[in-house]
Design a protein that fits this description.
The protein is mainly β. Helices cover 0% and strands 40% of the residues.
């Protein structure tokens, strides 16, 4: 306990006094779930990615979204470099980005996306640096193009033809 040159100090703490400092050791990672993405009905080349991430001490911008052609990577960041996000590390295609924990993200697929199926991964980080992730158990179809067909002619059946 600090004492002044004149011998003055605060009284010694007693039971029931509020602590001056509380130390919390957080070793529990967030709980993360990933849900089946859905096509955006308003935009043909957009998938809505959905997740749930819960933790008592969630970090600001705790979410990282990534895709891969294989269940174990290499992983590629979904959030583009031009979007408002925080750089957190390096993934398969450059710096990974973190997002706010909103529970959903509209992923605009580029017109030349390299594969029709992907695995998705969402990672969440708390302020203590604990990280948890959830991956899709099977690949997700990302071919959002609607097929277009054109009838070029018709052929009648044998019974409908006149002799």
């Amino acid at each position: 306990m600090p004492v002044s040159g004149a011998g003055l100090s605060d009284p010694a703490p007693v039971g029931g006094d509020a602590p001056d400092l509380r130390v919390v050791v957080d070793v529990t990672p967030p709980v993360v779930k990933i849900f089946e993405p859905v096509p955006d009905p308003q935009q043909k080349d957009v998938m809505i990615l959905r997740w749930q991430a819960v933790d008592r001490n969630m970090a600001p911008e705790p979410i990282t979204l990534e895709w891969s052609e294989h269940p174990d990577g290499p992983w590629h960041s979904i959030v583009g470099a031009t979007e408002a996000a925080v750089t957190v590390g390096i993934s398969g295609n450059g710096p990974a980005k973190r997002l706010a924990n909103t529970g959903s993200y509209a992923w605009r697929l580029p017109p030349t996306f390299p594969t029709p199926k992907v695995y998705l991964k969402v990672s969440a980080r708390d302020v203590a640096g604990n990280v948890a992730e959830a991956k899709t158990p099977s690949p997700i179809i990302v071919d959002l193009n609607r097929p277009v067909a054109k009838i070029q002619g018709t052929v009648g059946t044998a019974s409908s033809q006149k002799r």
